[in-house]
Amino acid sequence: MGSLYSEHQTWLHRVPAAIKLIFFAVLGSVQFLLDSSNVLMVSALACSLLFASLGRATYPAFKLVRAVLLAGLLIMVFHAYMHQPVLGMVSALRLFSASLLGIALTLTTRSRDLLSVFESLLSPLQRVGIKTERLALQLAMMLRFTEHFFVVWKRLDDAHRIRTGKAGGLTILAPLTIKMLVSARRVADTLELRLGE
User: Who's near 180: CB < 8 A, 6+ residues apart?
Assistant: First the structure.
């Protein structure tokens, strides 16, 4: 499976995965408690500076950031059409900030490190009979597939652009869906073989 993880070492690579996950989760949650567009603008600027501080490690994620910006723009246009421009700006700023934090986490944290964090956080549930290893694996797989989705999308879009000179757009939706289903089937088969279920 493809990964957005960057081998180009940054200062954020040296921060333990547990601290990054907790810090970004708290910051991302705070975004949704704030209503002031001015405060959210400052927050978006801070998230942008954090993201930019990763330097070359951000190169693989440029297309993803552009997609987030486009989504934010569409949200603002929709809310402006509904005569709620401030709400549109607030929603777009929240999306932008939370997305940058998530991308920064993905670029600088290996999947196995996140899996270890999930297993540690969920381990108290073993006392009430819950099989936390499987729950942690499911959470890690969900994050991994989200990351893989964007990697495959970028590859297909690049291939389409080389062939036609244009962005893939909706024309790559069908092959993207097929590739994701094939990947999911392979992972399911592998897990079945390894786990014996």
Answer: 145, 148, 149, 152
Distance CA 135, CA 119 (A): 8
Per-residue pLDDT tens digits of the chain, which is 197 residues long:
667 788 889 999 999 988 998 888 888 888 888 888 889 999 999 999 999 999 998 988 888 888 889 889 999 999 999 999 999 999 999 999 988 998 898 889 887 888 888 888 888 888 887 778 777 777 777 777 777 777 788 888 888 888 888 877 778 888 888 888 888 788 777 777 766 55
- Distance (Å, whole) CA 168 – CA 173: 8
Residue with tokens 């869906």: 177
CA atoms of 28 and 20, how far apart (whole Å): 12
Q: Which residues contact 72 (CB under 8 A, 6 or more apart)?
A: 91, 92, 93, 95, 96
148/4 Cα distance (integer angstroms): 8
Distance (Å, whole) CA 141 – CA 160: 28
Residue 71, Cβ density class (10 Å: 0-12 exposed, 13-18 middle, ≥19 buried): middle
Which pair of structure tokens corresponds to residue 129? 């009979």
Question: Nearest-5° angle of CA 103, CA 141, CA 53?
Answer: 15
CA angle centred on 142, ends 117 and 195, rounded to 5°? 80
User: Which pTM was predicted?
Assistant: 0.74
